[in-house]
């Protein structure tokens, strides 16, 4: 039996740039190199960042806003971990973002982790979209619903 060395690459989505600031600070504090795409990044620079993430093994984490990362981007199939930091009221936004990783060229199982605060409106939002879990099984990707 051949053991494969799978390089874990993760994309972290948030609706808020300030949340990405906090995530970036936490990654830096732990010595983790990351790339960032948000509304302040020009389309040309965005392309360069995505190519770096795709082609350079040194970049293992990409943080991005839903508005810049969930629509119209290809080449994210190198990632096999997706973190959604807050549930979206429109489940299509999350489905669109997750769909970026389930394209032709994806060679690994994709794990999706959604975070929600216990006893909050986030918890209601996270669990009100039951059909997303159905999609997970249909599309053969694993989703974790984590409440903290």
Give short descriptive properties of this protein.
alpha/beta, Rossmann fold, Helicase C-terminal domain-containing protein
Number of H- or I-type helical stretches: 6
Main sheet makeup: 6 strands, parallel
Number of domains: 1
The ordered H/E elements are: EHEHEHEHEHHE
Can you offer a commentary on this structure?
Residues 2-140 form the Helicase C-terminal domain. Keywords: ATP-binding, Hydrolase, Nucleotide-binding. One of its GO terms (biological process) is DNA repair. The protein is of the alpha/beta class. It has 6 helices and 6 strands; from the N terminus they run E-H-E-H-E-H-E-H-E-H-H-E. The longest helix has 13 residues, at 17-29. The radius of gyration is 15 Å and the shape is globular.
Write the layout of secondary structure elements.
Elements: E1 10-14, H1 17-29, E2 34-37, H2 43-55, E3 61-65, H3 66-69, E4 81-84, H4 91-99, E5 111-116, H5 121-128, H6 130-139, E6 142-147
Parallel strand pairs: 1-3, 1-4, 2-3, 4-5, 5-6
GO cellular component, one term: nucleus
GO molecular function, one term: ATP-dependent activity, acting on DNA
Domain Helicase C-terminal: 2-140
Would you kindly provide a brief summary of this structure?
By secondary structure, the chain is an alpha/beta fold.
